[in-house]
Amino acid sequence: MPTFVAFAFVMPVLGFGMIAALATCNAAVQVRTDSALRGRVMGVYMAAWMAGSPVGALVLGGIVDGAGARAALVVAGVVCLAAASGVAAIFRLRRPIPAGDDPAVLPSMLQLPERE
């Protein structure tokens, strides 16, 4: 059974991870988007973030009512892992790594976008 002390130690780490992920995603979307479309893309990006929270809360609330809080946390974790695996697979398919190159550093990561 989790305790308050365990919760108090884990929550700052989770909060830091969430803020780091949000900042990284926000920067990646802005850097990879053409400047002429950046406002529109950021609008869609923010709409997706804002719409995802209430929908997820509604679904997880139903799971908590039906199966309990632990089951809801397990479902949320499985969904996050599945989403991360899916995104990783899509990026792996879209950007093949040439033989002999280090997969940790791709040339596209080293290039900065051109300024206008």
TrEMBL record:
Residue intervals passing through the bilayer: 6-29, 41-64, 70-91
Superkingdom of origin organism: Bacteria
Keyword Manganese attached: no
Primary location class: membrane
UniProt xrefs under Pfam families: MFS_1
Membrane topology label: Multi-pass membrane protein
Matches recorded under InterPro entries: MFS, MFS_trans_sf
Location within or outside the cell: Cell membrane
Keywords: Cell membrane, Membrane, Transmembrane, Transmembrane helix
Name the UniProt record assigns to this protein: MFS transporter
Organism: Naasia aerilata
